[in-house]
Amino acid sequence: MTILGELPGPFFGEYGGRFMPESLITAIDELAAAYDLAKSDPAFHAELRELERTYSGRPSIITEVPRFAQHAGGARIILKREDLNHTGSHKINNVLGQALLTRRIGKTRVIAETGAGQHGVATATAAALFGFECTVYMGEVDTKRQALNVARMRLLGAEVVSVTTGSRTLKDAINEAYREWVTSVETTNYIFGTAAGPHPFPAMVRDFQKIIGEEARAQVMELTGRLPDAVVACVGGGSNAIGIFTAFLDDPGVKLFGYEAAGDGIDTDRHAAAIERGRPGILHGARSYLLQDEDGQTVESHSISAGLDYPGVGPEHAYLSDIGRATYLPTSDTEAMEALRLLSMTEGIIPAIESAHALSGALKLGRELGPDAVILVNLSGRGDKDVQTAGDWFGLFDEGAVQA
Amino acid sequence: MTTTTHSVAATIEATRRAGTGALVGYLPVGFPDLATSVDAAVALVESGVDVLELGLPYSDPVMDGLVIQKATQTALEAGFRIRDVFTAVEAIRSRVDAPVLVMTYWNPVMQYGADRFADALMNAGGAGLITPDITPDSAADWLATSERTGLDRVFLAAPSSTDARIVTTVAASRGFVYAVSTMGITGARHDVDAAARTLVSRLRAAESENVCVGIGISTADQVAEVLAYADGAIVGSALVTALAEHGVSGLARTAAALAQGRSR
Ligand SMILES: Cc1ncc(COP(=O)(O)O)c(C=O)c1O
Known about the structure:
heterodimer, A: alpha/beta, Rossmann fold, 6-stranded mixed β-sheet, B: alpha/beta, TIM Barrel, 9-stranded parallel β-sheet, 11 helices, binds pyridoxal-5'-phosphate
């Protein structure tokens, strides 16, 4: 039997691969080779574990949320608190791994794309820590809705480039990062922020994120004496989801649910549900589900959540969906925002809007599974960056007050 | 393999024998509109361009700079469809006698169906494809389809390509190998990188018959400089800018000026 938790890439079934311009192949292949070496080097893992222990704050805790769970059919809901990591999301897990790798291959400058700004902030943070130069590409739409994170990145010493081409969101930030990388590849490593893109990124990012599920599996066992019935995460490119899924992939009794952003609604044309509404195609170096028109032109995605506003999805999720190991469901802007407010008011935890999609999924799932169910939810990030959006959405600002 | 008299290799061979070298001109289909893009391509050939490279507008052109991005975005907003490429190729081929390659990112071909795309391109009189975002090791479908149809397949080689990759790229390519002059994306540059010369000699050492250099070439002097060591010089952004700013007649003047670089 193949062990699902250890798929090495480049292909996951028919998905994945390395469909890239020749100009970038040498750098990508070097990165893959360096990662292969690092993967089997205990010194690399020891360094990473030490950074996690003394810098980013691992292990992250789990928190059971009974007052929130009353709204979820009474099922037990347990949150994996990636929001408590340094920089405020799961993104730092991956970035510390890739920063160590950057140093190993002798590069001194890093670039990154970012949607919500969390990956950009994590990369800028690691660059400050390691002494790298850092440039972050961010769509103009996202620099506006996540302005706080733009300032954070600049405070950390990074250059932030506002991308004004195409849909001006995450997809275009990746395009621009690729264009820049072609010109600077000799000195620059691309720290990719999600479990998508060309090989080795999907497998490598998963490996750096799988600690989420490894910790959570043991923590839930300790708390409840058993495995959860379901594990739930939001899916943008798919890194927090694959991070919490991987440790459970070979536990057949544990159901896995990924929630894609349904934006204005899954039956409108304004959503970001690549698995639910897309079909296989190639974007950003990998074959996977993709929102596209008949001609293969990428269709713009829409979500209130900048981190989920991406028309593609990581190839391992496409594979897990096809083989039926994980189920991907849509959840809308409105549902996510309601879940965001509910967790805030019942438990005193303000989640990132991305993570609120997972919470809204858990609310629906709990009602289906009933009070005996144990549901583990990846709380991938905190909502500080989203207070402006939430304030506008719920009308929380005093009239006439000047907002930053 | 069928080689028509109008094939890319034959055209390059003829320019080599004539001692001029080949000028390859790029324009996107559908910019500023379909009919004008056909007139523009015809004007290129009438002004001295030897081989046409027609770009298929795509939503995520990662190898293109701003000039080409803007033009292809305009074409997409005006409703460009894949089938317009075949219409354009057929119309151009009925008016001028130059081989026409289509430059396309891979997803549109994959969605259209590689076989269906190739058959339509053959029927329209196209010569083959230039594929900037896939490499021979990721192009099984295209290798099979181009074997079946005899269409040319132009892959790219970069200054960063390893020796082993240069060998496989040369072996897989037909028509010519596209030598990327510099580590960068499309767009006019003041200097064509010295890296181009080195790359061309590496490709020749790997026994590439035809090597054309592209990216950054925008003047007749640069065309002349490149043709001193390569079989062809590829010009894109400079032509697109001329078309955008001065229309088809302005484009024709720019192309004629660039073609002066061939005979030096
Ligand atoms: C808090 C948070 N969760 C989730 C995501 C979505 O990314 P992924 O699907 O890679 O986890 C982001 C992306 O910016 C994020 O900031």
